[in-house]
Amino acid sequence: MSEYATLLAAAGELRRPAWLHPDMARTLAVYFGRLWVPVLPISCRVNWTIISTEELMAKRPDSDTNHMIGGFPHAVPLFHPLRARLLRDFTFRKELRQRADLRLAELAYQAAVTAPTFIGVHVRRTDYSTWLARSVRGRVAGVSYLRRAVALMKSRHRNSLFVVVSDDPEWCRKNLRGLQRVVVAGDGVQNRPGADLALLAACNHTVVTHGTFGFWAAYLAGGEVVAPTGYGRRPTGLEQDVRRARLGWTWLPAKGQ
């Protein structure tokens, strides 16, 4: 999703045609309806110059060169002006939308909450702990942050119901036990992310921890977003990009009581 959004925005900014790699198109087609960027034919043989988003936008190369954006681009300030277009393109398939709506209705019924405000909570852990320690000498946001984020959202929204999705649901069940109107609802299967992402996107507001999965859940849901800061020696590139794009997120210290 980040690659698609960055590609679309870069092509528009540079006034160049954009093509989806067939692998990207196949992956996105599993979850979303029609995407409006054409797919590069498999039979097409092109000499590509692999380039980063930053280099591409800085150099603004001539139109005679074919470029492939490399790495893991997530240029929020670049693609945020296209938000309306991205929301149209990232419309979940009907079956995923229906499943998410049904699941939210079930959770509200089980919690005996009438007309709730759904707050999606994405908790990223497992292998991200290693990446965060290596990249910014940081630690993943823990129980203290999540409890404070939930309390903040409860103070803003009455009748709220918190829907937790995580790659480590057992950790969430153990550590978030006792919090009222907080339910762990996702299946936590990383190679089958569509249902969890659609569920979070169907919520009204979002609490995130780390990573682009949580970002896209919050971005598609709209509403208010609470996110951690101060989890490492320096912020991640994602946090810096979100701040530069001025998305209006509430930043809550990852460490604290």
Structure, explained:
By secondary structure, the chain is α/β, with parallel strands linked by helices. It has 2 domains: 2-89, no CATH class; 94-253, Rossmann fold (3-Layer(aba) Sandwich), CATH 3.40.50. The chain is 44% helix and 14% strand. It is built from 12 helices and 8 strands. Helix 10 packs across helix 11. It is globular and about 60 Å long.
Task: Give a quick set of tags describing it.
257 residues; alpha/beta; Rossmann fold; 2 domains; two-stranded parallel sheet; globular; L-Fucosyltransferase
Summarize the structure.
One of its GO terms (biological process) is carbohydrate metabolic process. This is L-Fucosyltransferase. The protein is an alpha/beta fold and 257 residues long.
Strand residue content: 5-15%
Average pLDDT = 91
Low-confidence stretches: none
Find the count of extended strands (DSSP E, 2+ residues).
8
Task: Tell me the number of structural domains.
Answer: 2
Give me the secondary-structure category: alpha/beta
CATH topology name of the largest domain, in short, is Rossmann fold
Overall shape: it is globular
Strand order of the largest sheet: 5-4-3-6-7-8
What is the CATH architecture assignment of the largest domain? 3-Layer(aba) Sandwich
